[in-house]
Model the fold of this input.
Amino acid sequence: MVQYFTDTECGPKPRTVDGIDQRVWGGLYTLIDGRVSDSSFGRRFPAYCPDGNAACGCDTVGLARMLAAEVPMVEWPLSPDVVPSTPVVMDLLEFCAAAVGERIDDHYHSYFRHYHLTWDREMGLSRFVDDVNLLFARNGLAYEMSPAGEVRRLLPQPLAVALARFAPFTGDAEMDRLLETSRRHIASPKPDIRQDALEKIWDAFERLKTLEGGGDKKQQADALLDRVAASGSKLRTMLGKEALALTDIGNTFRIRHSETTQEILSSGEHLDYLFWRMFAFISMILRATNRGT
Done:
């Protein structure tokens, strides 16, 4: 990937931007349009020579039909002036990554004045990934395309490390499943999947309250917190208040319930904040009670 002067002298731009704006879309549009023009997508959508012997280009009609079926939110042909929503752009990029290959001119067919083509999948994908990641990095987007062509969201480094090291072993299979699902889904670039991560970790929190012995749910939750901090201590009091606050958050916002009275979280930053607040609370309790790392 290209290393620009300012990256070397001033350091890379912080990767904190969540949305695709007009400038970034213009670059991505040009990148995709260039791959269409040079037949890079012919690897998956080949157009064949009239004599039927070999591929000679890209079948743009077939590409458009398949794109409409796989990413129905995209309007084709693309317009440099109409910016799709960010999740749709990510789907489009993954579609392109799955189709791309490096065009190789094989045999020149003089009668039709074109080359018969083959494609190098590995080289084409690598170049496409590098080009996409350059645009992401130069514009501070919190996304990255993996070598396999999958877009993932970049989390702040300390949080990414905490999630990578997090390993629950609560003894309750459903609890561990909820926590593992939420851990994986919060890194998705798609808001609905990140919303699922928030819902799953709140479900895990409610289940966590019942892991200790005791009569009712409140007694079990109190017994759990008593293992974390000494009963009557200021820390224990604070943890009890935090548990009540988290419960109230789950009931107030569209997290655990879907009644019309629940407020929808319309901001990705708000969703992330609530996830990390809950994650910090749960992970601390699991470590303190020898139920996770």
About this structure: The longest strand covers residues 102-109. The chain has a mean pLDDT of 93. DSSP finds eleven helices and six strands in the chain. The beta strands are 46-48, 55-58, 102-109, 114-120, 143-145, 151-153.
